[in-house]
Design brief:
The chain is an alpha/beta fold. It has one domain: 3-Layer(aba) Sandwich (Rossmann fold). The chain is built from seven helices and nine strands. A six-stranded parallel sheet has the order 1-9-8-5-2-3. A three-stranded antiparallel sheet has the order 4-7-6. Strand 2, helix 2 and strand 3 form a beta-alpha-beta unit. The longest helix has 21 residues. The radius of gyration is 17 Å and the shape is globular. The mean pLDDT is 96.
Length: 242
C-alpha cells in the first residue's frame, strides 16, 4: 500500500488533459516493453471529459488500443442500451473511436437477464478467465458521500474480501441495482487514480485526506500497490486548504 499523492489542476478540462496524457504515456511504456496494458475505467462527468481527451491525444501517443484490456470498476445493472451504463458512455466517448479489440473489452453484464447474482458470477468468471491478475491502472470517481465504484458508506459490501465482485440491490444513488468489484479486486492494481472535480466533492476529498474510516468514506479503502494519486481540480481541492 502506497501513501497517496495529490495533484491539483486549475479546472476539470485541464485535469482531463493532463491525466489523459499520463495514461497514454503509461500504456505506451507497457506496450514498448512487450506488455498488454490492463486498465479499469470509471464513469461520470469527469471520466467523460477524460475519454474525449484520450481520443484527441491518441494519434500522437504511439498507443495501440487493440492491445489494451479494458475493464470497469462497477456498472449499473440496467439494460444494455441505457444511458446510465458506464460501458455505453465509454464506448460513445472513447472506445468507438480508437480501434479497440472487442475481445479485450470486458463489459459487465446488462440487466436483460434480470438475475443480478448470475451477473456477478459472470463478472468473476470473466476476470478469472481473461484477467492478468493485476490491473495496471484503476481509475475511480468519488461521490459526495465518499463512495467509489458502487461501494457505498455503511454497506456490508465494504467488508467482502473473499470475492471479486458483489451485487448491490439497494444503492442509495439510482439506479438501485449495480455490480461492483470489491476492494480485494480493485486493489490488485499497480496504480489507483482518483479523478475528482467540482466543489460538491470537496468535503469528501478533505475527509479522505483526514484519514476517515473506509466504512464511513469508502474511497479510503482503495489504493494501488505502487502508486495512489488523487487528481483534483481547484474546486475539489478547496476544502484541503482550510
Amino acid at each position: 500500500m502506497t501513501s497517496p499523492a495529490v495533484e491539483v489542476f486549475a479546472d476539470a478540462p485541464t485535469l482531463a488533459t493532463r491525466v489523459g496524457a499520463r495514461l497514454l504515456e503509461r500504456i505506451a511504456a507497457i506496450q514498448a516493453s512487450g506488455g498488454v496494458a490492463s486498465i479499469a475505467l470509471t464513469g461520470g462527468t469527469i471520466a467523460d471529459e477524460l475519454h474525449r481527451e484520450l481520443v484527441r491525444l491518441t494519434p500522437t501517443s504511439g498507443v495501440d488500443w487493440s492491445r489494451v484490456d479494458i475493464w470497469w470498476g462497477d456498472e449499473r445493472f440496467v439494460p444494455a442500451d441505457s444511458e446510465d451504463r458506464n460501458a455505453r458512455q465509454a464506448a460513445a466517448a472513447l472506445l468507438d473511436h480508437v480501434g479497440v479489440n472487442p475481445a479485450r473489452v470486458h463489459e459487465m453484464p446488462a440487466a436483460e437477464s434480470g438475475d443480478l447474482a448470475a451477473a456477478v458470477r459472470a463478472v468473476e468468471t470473466e476476470v478469472r478467465t481473461h484477467g492478468s491478475g493485476m490491473f495496471d491502472v484503476v481509475m475511480l470517481g468519488v461521490g459526495p458521500d465518499g463512495h467509489v465504484a458502487s461501494l457505498f458508506p455503511g454497506q456490508p459490501t465494504l467488508d467482502v474480501d473473499d470475492a471479486i465482485a458483489v451485487g448491490v440491490s439497494d444503492s442509495p444513488k439510482p439506479p438501485p441495482q449495480r455490480i461492483s468489484l470489491t476492494f480485494a479486486a480493485l486493489n490488485r492494481t499497480r496504480a489507483t487514480w482518483f479523478l475528482v472535480s467540482g466543489s460538491g466533492k470537496a468535503e469528501a476529498v478533505a475527509r479522505a485526506h483526514g484519514g476517515a474510516d473506509p466504512h464511513d468514506l469508502p474511497a479510503n479503502g482503495a489504493h494501488g500497490t505502487e502508486e495512489t494519486v488523487w487528481f483534483l481540480d481547484e474546486a475539489a481541492a478547496s476544502a484541503l486548504r482550510r
